[in-house]
Records
---
Amino acid sequence: MHKYKFSLPRLDITGMWVFSLGVWFHIVARLVYSKPWMAFFLAELIAAILVLFGAYQVLDAWIARVSREEREALEARQQAMMEGQQEGGHVSH
């Protein structure tokens, strides 16, 4: 007997938006007539979650770009220092 491991696929930001909007429309369609205040609260909650998730994605990409640029600048400085040391170490007679 084989055991299957169930895992959800990792959604990108567009997939998360489409999925969340689909869930939102499905749930709100049921709540609008019976409990309008709950539909409004749910809409605000989902909007806040999407904004936070989107902000996290944007900040994560920005931090990765900045750290990559800093790493490249550091490597360039180290390379320049090593070249300077190698040139200074060669003494011509």
---
Amino acid sequence: LWESCSSDMVEKSMVAIQASVLNYDDAIKKWLPAGGSKIQEMSKVQILHHVENNTFRVVGRKLQDHDVVINCAIIPGLKYNFTSDTFHQWRDHINQKLYGLNFLNLEDAVTFGTVMSRVLEVINSYRTQAQSNVNRPSMAYTEQGSVTVARQTVNGSTTSVVQDNMEMRMDNFDPRRPIQQENSVNNSAYCSMSGAGKTVSQGTLVSSPSKPTAPMPPSVQPLIHI
């Protein structure tokens, strides 16, 4: 079943999986469990799409106490590294953190990594289009709803061109934005979004159900500098 984002929803979950979240400590050169835990704990990790602002972020909550361990904006230029089959990492340049995700299984790792790659492809295409628009001479842009009207004056004659609005409003990202409480980790619906000739389109995923004694992920992989 394939479905698109609904305009009346502020944030849409594109993917939800279970993984242990880690932060890299530069001082001691080691990966440590996020949130101050002494051992790795499982978290529900999602990629959320803010429909109105057209922004994306990664949010993670511990399954045990629902503490937030990730709230990271996905911005153009972010480098997402597939360090191993079940361990991925990236740097959050806004909060100056290096995150690692230790997945329970290969399926969850592939699912999350695929969606992240598609999101990055789309938002990077936005930046390319925005830079092209900025460098275009004698152009005036006016936002009208979900489109941009570009007016170009040549020899006294004004021409209007309606374009898809490709501007990423990253200034609207607020890391303090509240994260809604959730009661289930299942049936997280994917989001469908188009832009700059790229499309993020997925169906409904059923994330791994929480288990009273979930096995811990494989041992953490060594850091690759990014």
---
Amino acid sequence: MIELLDIKVDVVFKDFFGDKSSKEILESFINTVLDLQGDDLIEVEEFLDPRKMRVEVGRPSTFVDLSVKTKRGERYIIEMQTYNHEGFDKRLLYYLGKDYTEQI
């Protein structure tokens, strides 16, 4: 008997939503979670490399589940979290800051 994979498992989430053939499903997922409608709907234009490589020796590398760019030029970092990790809010701010500075 085939057991279904749990989409909340990190590697399953990345493989499923990070595959370009799942673009429409990812768009629907983001739009539903963010409750976007009409002109606000997100259309993914590009899947960005979710691995942020080390720029300087001694600085930590950043890895996120998914990173996408929309047709309007917006960038979204998508993380699957099933429970509240201590320090997750700080890690999220670090990811956002790192992604922002890489665009400058």
